[in-house]
Specification:
48% of the residues lie in helices and 14% in strands. By secondary structure, the chain is α/β, with parallel strands linked by helices.
Length: 250
């Protein structure tokens, strides 16, 4: 495994990020799992992957609200296995910021996690990715084209990430491909998973009724596309693909 490819996945300790890590690991990649607060989940996931193949997964920690930690992550990640072939910017803060209540701290938190860290990690790793004919995959959001009410700062940050995807695909060509994935309803939000009452069921039904395929997606729907972009889409760059069961058509 010492010559196998390496992927750095931000926000990879659980949910979609963890699914991406498992998918790439199954396909022979070594995995750099970034986390901020989910240290137990990151350690557990690393142990799971290393039990399959020893010394193929490591957890790295950085708070993207800290500029020094963001910069240090790229250096630490590159030093660990000595190469990086794929960068997946999956980390994301997500919470409502109604116009009247939004604060500068919300702007910083949502932009730092959703786009600033992604940009500067891409910048820092550009020479390495160029050397490897590598790939960057940004996890955007289907709501960039149909904004989510009361989430104005989050919507703006993800819109910036979509624009960054397209712009960097031009600047990094021809050696580095840059693509994006815009998930729709993938897994139930954690608040709906935890609730078991009439209101939660009503909210779930409203979501399902808005999806032509009448079901939510799975984390594997995202991780399969991420792997396709990384290893099989050698003539695709600058694309942002919705994975939303057709919901954006309504």
């Amino acid at each position: 495994m010492t010559d196998s490819k390496v992927v750095l996945i931000t926000g990879a300790a659980k949910r979609i990020g963890a699914s991406i890590a498992r998918n790439f690991h199954r396909n022979g990649y070594r995995i750099l799992i970034h986390a901020r607060n989910s240290r137990h989940e990151a350690t557990t996931l690393c142990s799971e992957l290393n039990e399959v193949t020893d010394n193929t997964a490591v957890a790295l920690y950085a708070d993207f609200d800290s500029w020094s930690e963001t910069l240090e992550l790229s250096n630490t990640a590159l030093c660990y296995f000595g190469r990086i072939d794929v960068l997946i910017n999956n980390a994301s803060m997500f919470y409502p910021t109604p116009l009247i209540e939004a604060r500068p701290a919300d702007w910083d938190s949502l932009f730092n996690s959703n786009v600033k860290a992604a940009f500067f990690l891409s910048q820092a790793l550009y020479p390495e990715l160029t050397k490897r004919n590598g790939s960057i995959i940004n996890i955007v959001d289907a709501h960039v084209d149909k904004p989510l009410r009361n989430h104005v700062i989050y919507n703006m940050a993800k819109s910036a990430l979509k624009s960054m995807t397209k712009t960097l695909s031009l600047e990094m060509a021809p050696r580095v491909r840059v693509n994006g994935i815009s998930p729709g309803a993938i897994l139930w939000p954690e608040d709906l998973e935890q609730e078991d009452n009439e209101e939660a069921q009503k909210r779930q039904k409203e979501i399902l009724d808005s999806i032509p395929m009448k079901r939510i997606g799975s984390a594997e729907d995202i991780s399969n596309l991420a792997y396709f972009f990384a290893d099989n889409a050698q003539y695709i760059t600058g694309q942002v693909i919705k994975v939303d069961g057709g919901r954006s058509l309504n």
